[in-house]
Amino acid sequence: EILNPTRQTKEKVARILAMHANKRERISEAHVGNIVGVVGLKASVTGDTLCDPSNPIVLEPIDAYEPVISVAVEPRTHADQEKIEQALSKLEAEDPTFRVKHDEDTGQIVISGMGELHLEILVGRLRRDFHTQVNVGKPHVVCKETVEQAAQAVAVFEKEIGGIRHFGEVLLELSPRERGKGNWFVNSLPDESLPAEFVPAIEQGVTESLESGVLLGYPVVDVAVALIGGTYKESFSSHLAFKVAASMACKEGLQKARPLLLEPIMAVQILV
Q1: pTM higher than 0.85 for the full model?
Q2: Residue pair 214/174 in contact by the 8 Å Cβ criterion
Q3: Is residue 270 in a domain?
Q4: Half-sphere exposure of 253 (CA within 13 A, CB side)
Q5: pLDDT tens across 202-258, in order?
Q6: What radius of gyration do the chain's Cα atoms show?
Q7: How many domains is the chain built from?
Q8: N- to C-terminal Cα distance for the chain?
Q9: Same domain, yes or no, for 122 and 33?
Q10: What is the CATH number of the domain that holds 111?
């Protein structure tokens, strides 16, 4: 029995395999410096640390690169749909540079990786290892979106749903961050202005809104979002109302803040 301190769970190893190209040899133990495969892990994924339960330690996770190429995949038959989704979930758990997303507009499954060869290998595994038949679309570059300037936006959500009235008003300020710094949400309001219980719902609305930009629907990166205003009505305000209002305000703020499309670049060194 070994410990996965990354996920605070214990695992049982059924077999240890020494890997030799495409051949595997079962061994009883592995020593420092050995590269092996293990069978039987349930919760562990690539990047997790495995160690002795009596001496727990968490090593630095793998710093995975962001995907740069995407293709749409779809099952050839309805029977393959569930098999493909399960297979892609397993592949995504194995490979930190591989992403799977369901496009809400088209209903397609979009897979992303580090290049066309990377995706070709994964599609090959879908067909060979998981016995699924898939159609593959044309590859396209994975872009990101960001903003060039600061902007403020306010949104009000007021609606009766199931006989219950919901109300929430949110004022946000969006501003650009240094490239590579990621997105950041901050609550700049004192507690007496807006009950703290609604802030997580507002942050969730902002986070989900940034998953799809206003230009071409790519993820939004390197944007700071500050909650600078809000109005609630004690009898009618709800988490749902503030989440939706935050999402609406964030989308409007992205429109006002001069949205910008980012394409991936790669720094290379050529030795002749």
Answers
A1: no
A2: no
A3: no
A4: 31
A5: 999 999 999 999 998 889 999 999 999 999 888 888 999 999 999 999 999 999 999
A6: 23
A7: 3
A8: 51
A9: no
A10: 3.30.70.870
